[in-house]
Amino acid sequence: MGPWLLAFFSAYIAVFLLELPDKTTALTLVLSNRFRSRPVLVGATVAFALQATIAVALGSAITLLPERVVAGAIALLFGIGAILLIRESMGADPDEADAAASARAGVPFLRAAMISFGTLFLTEWGDASQVTAIGVAARYASPVAVGIGTFLALMSVTMIALLVGRKLRARVPAHFIQRGAAVVFSVFALIAAWQAIF
């Protein structure tokens, strides 16, 4: 597998697995219950395209630093990601399904898209998947591949949330996946820390 595909699949798989049980999925479910699916999808597309671009830009900027500093930064990013995942897995699972009762089908398309954009864009700031995308972009010298992989992973989860709905949350044990991902992140952080020190 070439470096471009490796960067693409690394970003896609990592972000997809992190976002599946994440609050962004739950928020997309709530938004799809309040608004029609199309404006939610449009808002999500713009929000996630911007988030992927920002994450890749930050990750690419990190690669301009000396190799040991980059390894240290990657260790820090994956360590933060592990902490965020553990914290989220320990928190209560927010059930905002009651907000769907106040659904208004008459909300204008642009308003629904803007609300979806704003809430999803802000929700992704500091999220484990954003930290992951930054780390993957810093690891591989393929910012376009990482950006596309990150964006497609976010959109894949959004489409699943829109199509599958509440069944997704009933079948996927969020805390189990988050804790497993935290272990993986911790291993990546330790490997990168080892590379930074030795």
Summed up:
By secondary structure, the protein is mainly α.
Description:
There is one protein chain. The chain is mainly alpha-helical and about 200 residues long. The protein contains nine helices and no strands. About 5% of the residues have low confidence.
Q: What labels would you give this structure?
A:
198 residues, mainly alpha
Q: Could you tell me the mean pLDDT?
A: 78
- Which spans have pLDDT < 50 for at least 5 consecutive residues? 94-104
What is the oligomeric state here? single chain
Cα Rg: 17 Å
Total helical elements: 9
Distance between the termini: 28 Å
Task: Please render the helix and strand layout as text.
Blueprint lengths: L2 H17 L3 H12 L2 H26 L4 H24 L18 H16 L3 H12 L3 H22 L1 H6 L2 H24 L1
Helix pairs in contact: 1-6, 1-7, 2-5, 2-7, 3-5, 3-6, 3-7, 4-6, 4-9, 6-7
